[in-house]
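Ticket #4471: structure output looks truncated?

Reporter: J.K.
Steps to reproduce: submitted the chain below (356 residues) through the standard prediction queue, then opened the result file.
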Amino acid sequence: MEQQTQKPAKPRIGITMGDFNGIGPEIIIKVLVDTRLNTLCTPIVYGSGKILTRYKRLIGLEDFSYHQYNSQSFLHEKKPNVINCWAEHIEIEPGNITEEAGQCAMIALQRSTEDLKAGFLDAVVTAPINKSNIQKAGFAFMGHTEYYEYEFGNGRESLMLMCSESLRIGLLTAHVPLRKVAEMITPELIVKKVQILQNSLQEDFGIQKPKIAVLGLNPHAGESGLLGEEEKEIIAPTLEQLRQSGLIVMGPYSSDSFFGTLQYKNFDAVLACYHDQGLIPFKTLFFETGVNFTAGLPIVRTSPDHGTAYDIAGKGIADATSMRRAIFLALDIVANRKNKVQRMLRVQKKLTKEKA
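Returned output as attached by the reporter:
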């Protein structure tokens, strides 16, 4: 499809519909019905206008309107835009897991990825998918994070980073079985993930001297080797090596007391060893407002921190706060990256004049 290539002043934010039998369409509508968002960005939903229309009637938000964008049309600057990613008429089944919903979620994801690669979008925000039905459609990844790493990493690893106003927590290992975690914790992995986190805090969040905490793998952070050797033999020496290189990175901390005593408030970010060690405290504290950000990639991708929530799909009671925060965080990161580039250009221009 031929598209407008000249970038306007406002960022273009792609929003994938996710599994349309979950709460994705509802939370998208609830966020985009507020027209004030259109002054900050140009939202572009990848999915189906017909499905959005059916949901707006189902949940009683008739005020929601959108502009249907295609190769013969234009991007509306004062309304959400919708790109129809499939032509077939598909019935919604709120709360049910269907193969059609998985197939359509993958199609919307692929279409938005094409536009990201073409430079048509400034960022993408992904509504929740269901790993079982989207994988049946040929999606060979454990989640969005692995997918975007494959599409945009160019051999580099990314970092799942959960973000709220007072806590950012990244994962050394993400979607892997717990029994495999210990063997994956190596000095090389720790250094790699700390560096990704350090760079992201500086470039994406504007924190020049980040303070990072790293959690231990074992109970009580190994209790000096009594409950495990990984902290003493791997984690602590690696963190000392990183400190000698100039980074402010502390630990390993015992996870229970670290969160129980609110020590996380003393740091700009935390690195957990495995999925549940990081996400249980994060979602306990910030389930309604948290955002998932894929750090370490050249593109900006965020998402709500919750899943499809089939049990409340189509009932009009889903909380859209996390989706709203995901869009705002994407806008902030886009702005921070743009400001960094502009600062670098100003420095290069100044150096060029001095040499002349």
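Triage note (M.O.): checked the attachment and the full token line is present. The chain has two domains: 8-156+297-356, 161-285.
Status: closed, working as intended.
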